[in-house]
């Protein structure tokens, strides 16, 4: 077998008439790398061995029409551009073949040399464009993957020295070994904590975007109480009011739902008013066969009306808060919601409080209907 | 016994455990292989190992694999607690699931938490 010429346009021409094959080769052999075959089996053998760019097939052949042949190889050899060549054809067949994507162009026999040449060059352009696009998509996917892996591992590497700093501050306080009348250690500690919160949000963002949806049974009573264990000890001044009504089983994705609730509860805690004597975080859960409806409400500083439609945007920070934050939390909530097909809405009044209402479909319905 | 590639974290843990009164007899190992060598050679086995997860060369999980090959009589005497700053879901799940690990606690080390875990066992 002759070796492939780089940059040459490789064409496979299938026609049962040797005269046509010879004529084609005589006309174009100086321009293109041409493989001529008389049968479908020969054509398939060439396609297995040689990455051709363009397949030209005659429509009128004894055992298999050109349209049938081109349609039959589309799955095994999707890359070459397919051209049909023929003297007579039923226009219905041709229209179907072109519309179903089996054929790129149709060339009439006897062919006009200029027209056929143009068709070949156009087909090759189309081949190149498609290949380029595929390559670009693959590269983008790779870059995207690397980027998020990079962010993830960097976030972890940043965390360990931060935890060492927290450890040193703890030890200094324990030993009383640093004379610190102005509370500088405390300020360092707060800054490190802020930085760590930010890093944790970035990691959570990555985990949320990578995690697949896994549906399992959720008992909201214990689920919510476990989540609150993380918050209660540091927020003794807050009255957590929990009302859970779950008469039926709920099937849903534990990871994404906990990400959502974690962010909303931590916001409800963070954006309390300092001067409020009775700080309240109210969580209501109502489960039915179709969905669970959860509301998380606080009597904190609230959200300005003009900010309400922006809070779910990445890196959005409200200006009236005087709280540290990354602008990532609610974005993650929205992304997680999209993943599990949930809905979220918010009502808020400045200095009165904020209430998030979420609705998450109960996957139990689908599982049951699958069994029927 | 403390196993951690960070010399600062080793220093911190040693100091804090001494101050907390939990122990005064502490061996600090700056790598998992050091720790394994020590366990093989020493007459005195530690009651407790505080094991970091992410370490170069041999990480905490690889240490645990090797540790599983120790005779049962040795393993039964030693309690292992993993201590990490990782928040990787897979890391945390693997640590919790490992039969040799009694608990995973997060950095920075909180001696009250440590004492409570030890007391529960």
TrEMBL record, chain A:
Annotated Pfam families: HATPase_c, HisKA, Response_reg
Record's keyword annotation contains Transferase: yes
Gene3D superfamilies: 1.10.287.130, 3.40.50.2300, Histidine kinase-like ATPase, C-terminal domain (3.30.565.10)
Domain Response regulatory residues, every copy: 10-124
Catalytic activity: ATP + protein L-histidine = ADP + protein N-phospho-L-histidine
EC number: 2.7.13.3
InterPro entries: CheY-like_superfamily, HATPase_C_sf, HATPase_dom, His_kinase_dom, HisK_dim/P_dom, HisK_dim/P_sf, Sig_transdc_His_kin-like_C, Sig_transdc_resp-reg_receiver
Keywords: Kinase, Phosphoprotein, Transferase
Signal peptide range: none
Residues where 4-aspartylphosphate is found: 58
Molecular function GO labels: phosphorelay sensor kinase activity
Keyword Phosphoprotein among UniProt keywords: yes
The protein's name in its UniProt record: histidine kinase
